[in-house]
Amino acid sequence: MNSNDLILVTGASGYIGGCLVPRLLEKGYRVRCLTRNPTSLQNRSWFSQVEIVQGDILASAAVYEALENVRRCYYLVHSMSSGQRYIEQDRLAATNFGAIAGRAGVQQIIYLGGLADPTSELSSHMRSRVQTGELLRHGGVAVTEFRASMIIGAGSISFEMIRFLTEQFPVLVGPSWCYNNSQPIAIENVLDYLLAALETAGCENQVFEIGGKDLISYAQAMLIYGSLRGLKRKFMIAPWIPVGWLAFGVELFTPVPANIARPLIDGMHSQSIVKNSAASIIFPDIQPDNYRSAVTQALNKLSPTYIEPVWENCKDSVKITKHAGFLIDSRRVNTPVQPWVVFSIIVGLGCKRGWLSIGLIWRIRGLLDRLVGGTGMRSRQDGELIVGSYTGFYSVETIEPDRLLRLRAEVKAPGAGWLEWLIKPLPEGGVQLLQTAYFAPKGFAGFFYWYFLLPIRRLAFAGLIKHIVRQGIAKQCD
Questions:
Q1: pLDDT at 123 over 80
Q2: How far apart are CA 222 and CA 232, in angstroms?
Q3: pLDDT at residue 4 in the model
Q4: Which of 2, 47, 178, 235 has a CA that sits 20 to 30 A from residue 443's CA?
Q5: Does 37 map to a domain?
Q6: What pLDDT is stored for residue 355 in this prediction?
Q7: What are 216-239's pLDDT values in tens digits?
Q8: What per-residue confidence (pLDDT) applies to 268?
Q9: Would you put residue 140 in left (φ > 0), alpha (ψ -120 to 50) or beta?
Q10: Residues 6 or more apart in contact with residue 446 via CB below 8 angstroms
Q11: pLDDT digits over 22-81, tens only?
Q12: Beta-carbon neighbour count of residue 322 at 10 Å?
């Protein structure tokens, strides 16, 4: 296959699609994305490098447009977030896409589903994932179907459920089927398989079961995660907990909403293990990682550098959210000033003008840090900030003149923190300023620390961005 060929990716706003697109671009493929809402992609680092077709997977005209001049495509969509009728919608979407792909002359559809034995008793969700592959094949196009177990990576729904629950609770509670076995697979290995399907002869019209090296239970997955984080955790069986209650708990304590958590939890009733070795025969160069290695890779990306700011698609001026292991306080405001003006105010924080509205709060925080053996607030001389220099109890991690400043907190705390400002020019003039505080909590203490101080933090950060904008306007008017 020519690496300059045009590849269609459906589901690019989802986790797998969002990880796959940059890998395709790295290999030199031209990429087109079909999405209902293009604004959901506009903050992705690769947005300007892809073609966008706006439309629903159920809308025939949009699918025809998206498949024009496309010979190979990825089907990575599901409708779990749409409510109780998601299974019916998934069936309609797969039928519609498969039929149109056949008429459009598509040669290959690459589909990622869930790993389960279709001959056993499956949950509605897992049965739906198997049926989606079958319905795609009805259009007459060669389908390469991968069936994966739990996918381990920063931002993966399955992994974030494990991460957030294990971090917060010393005793983890679940039903007996949490001891059912699975073969968790690293996101990088999943992407390896998806990419190899474009370039490997003989993989068309086949179903491949893919999983990592380890055969472990869902309970073991949480306990191993805890051990890698230095957290002592125990698992306790509670067979009386309804699935609906579990889903509500997941929504309360993790980034995963209940309407998505419920079918995923229900799907754990069945084993998720590889029984067919075809993947290792057809793709011998791909050597799946073990579970500990996959988790370690995800934990190594616990930094704002590695996450896509998907929360920025929200229209709210203030967004408090959980994402990819972080608790995030994000604020945005538009201001009619030049980028360099706003940036000059931001890089001046900690100098003679101090920290504007939060100076007293920061001094108290610095004093408390000194009392527990930290560096506290360090005085800063006026001068240019560079990577590695410090201001207050922060060090400069990333700086891009007139665009971005990211500071890393160096106070003693049960977790890691960052404070970031991003400046985006607006088409009508002026800029949008995004101020984001990241905190990656460690254990229950980290979550208690974040939520206990949340009222003070919200007051401080609201005042900080307001004063930055106010001083920027005053400086431009001078």
A1: no
A2: 11
A3: 67
A4: 178
A5: no
A6: 67
A7: 999 999 999 999 999 999 998 887
A8: 75
A9: left
A10: 167, 413, 414, 415, 439, 440
A11: 999 999 999 999 998 888 888 888 998 999 999 888 888 888 999 999 999 999 987 655
A12: 17
User: What percentage of the chain carries pLDDT values higher than 70?
Assistant: 91
In this structure, what are the phi and psi dihedrals at residue 373, rounded to the nearest 5 degrees?
95, 10
408: left (phi over 0), alpha (psi -120 to 50) or beta: beta
pLDDT digits (tens, 9 = 90+) for 73-115: 999 987 655 555 767 888 888 899 999 999 999 999 999 988 8
Q: From residue 294, how far is each of 70, 183, 315 by CA, in Å?
A: 33, 12, 34
Q: Which of 326, 394, 361 is nearest to 460 (CA)?
A: 361
pLDDT in the model for residue 166 = 95
Judged by DSSP in three states, 423 sits in: strand
Q: pLDDT tens across 427-472, in order?
A: 888 898 999 999 999 999 999 999 998 888 888 888 888 888 888 8
Percent of the chain exceeding pLDDT 90 equals 44
pLDDT tier at 285, thresholds 50, 70, 90: very high
Listed in sequence order, the residues at least 6 apart from 268 whose beta carbon sits closer than 8 Å to its beta carbon are: 177, 178, 180, 182, 218
Identify whether residues 249 and 100 lie together within a single domain.
yes
Q: Are residues 354 and 443 in the same domain?
A: yes
Q: How many helices (H) and strands (E) does the chain have?
A: 15, 20
- Residue 259's H or E segment, with its range, is helix 258-267
> Which of 251, 280, 297 is the last residue before a domain boundary?
297
Q: Which helix (H) or strand (E) holds 16?
A: helix 15-26
Q: Is residue 220 part of a domain?
A: yes
What 3-state DSSP class applies to 70?
coil
Q: Is residue 408 part of a domain?
A: yes
Check whether residue 287 and residue 316 sit in a common domain.
no
Give me the domain span that covers residue 372. Answer: 304-477
- The enclosing domain of 87 has a CATH number of 3.40.50.720
As a whole number of angstroms, the distance between CA 138 and CA 98 comes to: 7
Taking the model in full, what pTM does it have?
0.88
Cα 326 to Cα 164, 296, 320, distances in angstroms: 9, 16, 11
Taking the CB of residue 43, how many other CB atoms lie within 10 A of it? Answer: 16
In the block, tokens 């949490």 appear at 178
What phi, psi does 116 have (nearest 5°)? -165, 160
HSE-up of 178 (CA within 13 Å, CB side)? 19
Domain-terminating residue out of 245, 277, 297: 297
**In whole angstroms, what is the distance from residue 196 CA to residue 205 CA?**
15
Q: Which pairs from 340-343 meet CB under 8 Å and 24+ separation?
A: 340/401, 340/402, 341/472, 341/475, 341/476, 342/423, 342/431, 342/433, 342/468, 342/469, 342/472, 343/401, 343/402, 343/403, 343/405, 343/423
Q: Are strands 431-441 and 415-425 parallel, antiparallel or unpaired?
A: antiparallel
